[in-house]
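Just curious: can you write a single protein's sequence together with how it folds?
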Amino acid sequence: MNNRYEYLVPCHFGLEAVCKREIDKLGYEIRSVEDGRIHFAGGIEAAARANVFLRTAQRILLKCGEFKAVTFEELFQGIKDIPWEEYLPKDARFWVTKATSVKSALFSTSDIQSIAKKAMVERMKDHFHVKWFPETGAAYPVRISLYKDLVTVALDLSGESLHKRGYRKMVSKAPIEETLAAGLILLTPWKKDRILVDPFCGSGTFPIEAAMIGANIAPGMQRSFQGQDWDNLIPARCWREAMTEARDLVDMNVTMDIQGYDIDPLIVKAARENAGRAGVADKIHFQHRPVHHLSHPKKYGFIITNPPYGERMEEKEELPILYREMGEAFQRLDTWSEYVITAYEDAEKYIGKKAAKNRKIYNGMMKTYFYMFPGPKPPRRKRREEGKSI
């Protein structure tokens, strides 16, 4: 196999530009950008570095093959033509963990999964000259997607979704995924020398992700990945070097003013514990405080938040008051910039002002909008003073 591989990076719909920018920053060549997915090329070390460093990726997939198929026979042959012996050792435990089909002639995902597995077994039998595989070795989950009859086959390098950073043990009622929170922060002009407040912090995801960005803590430093077991394919030094690189880049001397408030004292306690596990407890001030008490003596700060959407009927009735209180707080903080992700359709009406722009973002299957209310930029002299005083 050559030292150039193609990787697929699924991300949240609406965050493709942010994810692409992250991959660019790692120094890899972008091949294409699709809705919810980036393709890039890199050496085998990219398998480790992408998993450790990408904040907005849902998982990292190693592309094994791509072909057209409109019949199950074509699917079988296409899968069998992939050189699986170059990816899987003789004792590999392999299966199709997920198949998706959109606008394709083949639409039964369970049939796609079973036929693909049979084709892989046939290829391996032909190569290793055995009739049966023990499958006692490392796990190699395969993901297959069909879009307009184009079949893309990839190995899942991540295993558990990359939003599972390892720090969040207790979550609030409607948590925002870590990958989505990081992506939304990166969509704003917030920088580590500016104040950041989340008045609906829940289990602390926005403040924690911001603190990790500010201190340059790679998101994958505290977890393991499926591909770490694939020593036939990815040398162990690739993972060691990626982790060493990540540790060397951390800056725990950075001073930041990040605050998280919530009306539930138990969830505030959980947020503090989550921040401790993430290694940023001393970078964030958490407080039990309702949104109508939101105020701050300093100017030119940022609010980035995920307020309640009112998924239950009784909660929906309370939303006008809640969003009105949020709008009143925004008025008091008249030099601040506010960024709000919500599925509540009347958000702007009750906040009391029109967003400069909004971006449609899918939070799982739920369509939400990221409302952007940028405030005035601080004067240059003020920015320097603020940087010193924080």
Q: What stands out?
A: The CA atoms of residues 203 and 270 lie 6 Å apart. The domain at 5-156 is CATH 3.30.2130.30 (VC0802-like).
